[in-house]
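Exercise 7b. Backbone tokens:
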């Protein structure tokens, strides 16, 4: 797919971190970018800086997401690229000690279900809504491509750690969406891929730098090479390559400096 001013993209979670870097990288190619996020101040700031638009969207709410897509399409036309970075989840071990009572407790079904909504269901929601719009659009180029969907999984999908039973299994579910969805959409010329980032220097991780310098150094040292956390712009570079390279389809791309997560 040719990325340029004739192409529109939607980036969820575009107010910060991996989403922000992805929005900036696509805009640098001339793509018209719409940012979906709950953080109005940061999202509007990023959108203004790249000449895009901001839309307050709650990925847990179907009506909110559909309204966001409608507003983005009204502003930029049908998106040809969807980059889904937003997520919400709750952590915890399957069974652990209650700190107050000392009794055994389990991660509640409700907390797991909330994580499923915020990771797996939300990924299907935004991908399927994007695909529906792409399906009705005119094909592009000699391959007849109509769009590219890029979902964000995680290295935890393959190396889930202690306390990541929800996060790890549901990010694995995101990878599980990719092949069947790509096959569902192959006759429409819509590609589907996922990215599995390792430990990246996003705002939550950067807090360790000031809060716990020893932990920050240990995180950097844990990466085989290069011995540092990933940079959001490196994730974004992969987003641009996947969006632009029409032969990349039905794949999960791991970007992690060769790290393999230990149990803890």
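Sequence design result:
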């Amino acid at each position: 797919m040719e990325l340029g001013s004739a192409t529109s993209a939607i980036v969820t979670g575009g107010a910060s971190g991996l989403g922000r870097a992805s929005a900036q990288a696509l805009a640098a190619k001339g793509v018209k970018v719409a940012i979906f996020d709950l953080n109005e101040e940061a999202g509007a700031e990023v959108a203004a800086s790249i000449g895009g638009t901001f839309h307050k969207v709650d990925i847990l709410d179907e009506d909110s997401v559909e309204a966001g897509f409608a507003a983005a399409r009204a502003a930029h036309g049908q998106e040809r690229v969807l980059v889904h970075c937003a997520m919400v989840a709750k952590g915890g071990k399957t069974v652990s000690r209650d700190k107050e009572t000392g009794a055994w407790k389990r991660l509640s079904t409700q907390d797991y279900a909330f994580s499923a909504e915020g990771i797996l269901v939300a990924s299907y929601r935004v991908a399927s809504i994007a695909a529906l719009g792409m399906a009705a659009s005119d094909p592009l180029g000699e391959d007849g491509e109509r769009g590219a969907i890029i979902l964000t999984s995680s290295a935890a999908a393959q190396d889930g750690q202690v306390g990541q039973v929800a996060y790890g299994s549901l990010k694995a579910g995101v990878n599980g969406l990719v092949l069947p969805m790509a096959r569902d959409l192959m006759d429409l010329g819509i590609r589907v891929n996922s990215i599995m980032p390792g430990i990246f220097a996003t705002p939550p991780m950067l807090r360790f730098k000031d809060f716990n310098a020893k932990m920050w150094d240990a995180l950097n040292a844990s990466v085989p090479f290069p011995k540092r956390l990933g940079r959001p712009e490196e994730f974004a570079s992969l987003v641009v390559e996947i969006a632009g390279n029409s032969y990349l389809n039905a794949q999960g791309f791991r970007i992690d400096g060769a790290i393999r997560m230990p149990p803890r």
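Instructor comment: Residues 109-135 form the longest helix (27 residues). DSSP finds nine helices and nine strands in the chain.
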